[in-house]
Amino acid sequence: MQGNLAAAAKDFSRAVDADPNVADAWKRRGQTRAALGFDQEAIKDLTKAASLSPDHEYAYLTCDFFFQRGIVYHKMMDFRKALTDFRKALNIDGSSPITWNFVGLCENSLGRTREAIIAYERATQLDPNMKEAWANLGQAYRDAGDRQNAEKYFAMAEKLDPNYVHCYHLRGLLFYGCGEIRLALHDFSRGHECDRNDKNCFLMKAVCKHSLGDMSGAISEYTLLLKMDPVRKELMVAAGHLCYYQRELAIYLQKHLDVNLISFNADVELDAYFKESYCKRDPTNHPRLCNYIPQKPATSKIPDVKMVDKTGVKEVDELVELSRRFGPLIQLRSAGFLSNLRQHRMCGLAILHMAQQAKAWWQSGSTAETVANGSRRYDLYFDVKGSSKDCGKKHAFGWRDFMDISVKWRQISEPNDPVFWIDLMAPEVFAEGFGLQTPMVTGQMNVVRYYPYFERARDVVKKLIEESGACNVHDQRFMLPPNKIDQLREAKTCQDLWEVMQQGFYVETPCHSVARPGEIMAGTRITLLQKPPDGFDFTIRTPGTPPRWVEMDKEMAHAWSLLTEEARRQPEPDLDRFTDLALTFYFYWVNFGPLSRGTAACGYIAFFALMLSIGIEVQTSPPEGTQVDWPAILSPTPAGFIDEVKSWIYPSRKRCDILETAPAVGEVLATPRRMLEALNCK
User: What sections of the sequence does the record tag as coiled-coil (predicted)?
Assistant: First the structure.
């Protein structure tokens, strides 16, 4: 086929040479060059074709030239230029559903879901049988966080073509993102049945089984998937995840299904280089993995987790019901965030678990008489063998052991995410400053979830540059010339900032210490880099280096010490002071960013748990449009952050005695099997 295309390109070149004023010859050569991967040459040819066809004489031809060039720009991921061309084509002929569908694809790729929805709707009006437009419409609603409409339009695509694999994959991802793992499994299985060679549905089918605790099924699926391409398995990527790593994790989890959670820790037991490579999605022949010893083969002796609507165990079912009270509090009411029922369940159970263990720790410093007069005594389910701190060395229950609980819940509830403590990654990557990046802008896309904080982050960047300069990509600090300051102050977009700075750079937000008054630590990095074509990466990135880890560990330990002291105050803690300390704990946690993923969620779970540990229930989720971690990250002091959020947190605090009667999570859900059974209940 490539040979035929190359020959065709030569033929069209001869036609162009014979008569350079024939627009169609330029167009045909442009199309052929695009098919051969010579995109820049294709753009030149199609541009020439358009210039030879005045709109008033050959409107239909000009329309096609713009459409064809738009397709090439779209292929090049230059969505702005592609959108401009598709809009030009529609100005000539607005009746093309295919062009409207491409407009929707471009708008969605720019992060403008509302405009994408309008375009897809127009495409479906012009051609109600266009399954691609219906599926894309469903995807746009999914990206906006609207499950109801997403389901509605995916169903339209399925109705038009019951064998439409792409639709099953997209809807499966919707259900997975909503925590409806069984529904997701059904769609991925259906997609795989329709096309046995589709690796996207096949992998996610295995991931669903993994999530539900069908370990033998998941491991079998992962193994079959790897055999589909045994020579290049390290490159066989589906849905952005590598099958090899998932299988290793599934085998590990299977062996620990019935092991008490307090006696093991995946972060300690899994190979550090394996974790690094999994986070980075490295190929399995990467040099970092040269000494990695794979998990021993799975065993058939360990039964899979039972799939039941209710476990029939009174205490488990009671905890599941209680989790419904707390889990939804974690839900963000912001664009792009789907309501994830499984994560609600996980959060609710983790809040109860952590609250009980925190209360047990508070009680451990009180006399038996005091506790008896106050409330129920809890056992502290803690063993250093299951701690991520100090590799199992003896130590008292501390802030990290408290946070280990939420990390373990996150790891078990969502095996598709690499959630690990950064200091337990490979020493080289820890020294380099591995950290989670959260983009507000990536390429040409304004990221739906995080772009709402762009202006605030941009203003922080401008202020810091003016006060103390910035660092280039080589970590060299430089100051902005005085004659550039006015231009900096006027900058509104990434392009404006780039024109001022003329290079990639980052600034570090200040983070004021409470443990060491007067000390100012490096908070998070806000980075601006160019990203071809014609785009930027504007991100927050929290580097987890050893020196920074030492500093932040002191802050977390200090906050934990103050929380402990206040919780043990007699006759009872001061509510406002304890609340502020819990928010301070959260502030340093998210500025610390100690996890490869999931830092914000684990921290917010911890806040609710800390409040519940002293008998206080916070009865509201963040206000619409608010993501609690961003104000914390962009504030230099805990006090500034607290002032911003207490207006809605303080009034929502209510007395709650639920811990007096709730079953002990650490006892009832002591193993991954029991945790998964609780997560799987309807």
Answer: none
Nearest CA among 433, 442, 567, 570 for reference residue 508: 433
What's at 16, amino acid-wise? V
CATH of 325-425+547-680, one of 1.10.3290.20, 3.40.50.620, 2.130.10.10, 3.20.10.10: 1.10.3290.20
Does a cis peptide bond (omega within 30 degrees of 0) precede residue 287? no
What tens digit of pLDDT does each residue of 209-249 get? 999 999 999 999 999 988 886 544 444 444 435 789 999 99
How far apart, in whole angstroms, are the C-alpha atoms of residue 232 and residue 284? Answer: 10
Contact 218, 209 (CB under 8 A): yes
Is residue 181 classed as helix, strand or coil in its secondary structure?
Answer: helix
What gap in Å lies between CA 338 and CA 179, rounded to an integer? Answer: 9
Residue ranges with strand state E in 213-297: 237-238, 241-242
Q: Where are the domains of the chain?
A: 1-81, 325-425+547-680, 437-541
- Specify whether the backbone of 354 is left (phi greater than 0), alpha (psi in -120 to 50) or beta: alpha
| Cα–Cα distance, 307 to 159 (Å, whole number) | 30
Q: Which of 537, 562, 540 is nearest to 627 (CA)?
A: 540
Question: Residue 533, preceding bond cis, omega within 30 degrees?
Answer: yes
> Phi first, then psi: what are they for 28, rounded to 5°?
-65, -40
The one-letter code for the residue type at 382 is F
Maximum pairwise Cα distance, the chain: 102
- Whether the Cβ atoms of residue 302 and residue 673 lie closer than 8 Å to each other: no
Q: Which of 322, 320, 350, 340 is nearest to 416 (CA)?
A: 340
**Chain centroid to CA 114:** 21
pLDDT digits (tens, 9 = 90+) for 425-482: 999 999 988 888 899 999 999 999 999 999 999 999 999 999 999 999 999 999 999 9
- Report DSSP letters for 246-268, one per residue: HHHHHHHHHHTTTS-GGG--HHH
Say whether 357 sits in a helix, a strand or coil.
helix
Place of tokens 């205490």: 315
Global pTM reads 0.94
Beta carbons of 65 and 49 less than 8 angstroms apart: yes
Residue 397 per-residue DSSP state: -
Please tell me the distance from the alpha carbon of residue 247 to that of residue 232, in angstroms, as a whole number.
16
β partners of residue 526: 507, 540
Judge: domain 1-81, CATH 3.40.1010.10. Answer: no
Rounded mean pLDDT of 627-633?
96
Which residue matches tokens 């045994």? 230
pLDDT digits (tens, 9 = 90+) for 264-316: 999 999 999 999 999 998 888 889 899 999 999 998 999 999 988 888 899 99
Beta strand residue intervals within 444-504, DSSP E: 445-446, 470-472, 477-478
Q: CA distances (Å), 185 to each of 37, 173, 645, in order?
A: 36, 10, 39
- Residue written as tokens 């982050």? 457
Write the CA distances from 298 to 247, 255, 657, integer angstroms. Answer: 10, 8, 44
SS3 of residue 657 by DSSP: coil
- Distances from the Cα of 125 to the Cα of 98, 122, 131, 137, angstroms: 12, 5, 12, 12
Tell whether the model's pLDDT for residue 621 goes beyond 60. yes
Tell me which residue of 293, 306, 295, 307 sits closest to 255, measured CA to CA.
295
Lowest mean pLDDT among 89-98, 369-378, 509-518: 369-378
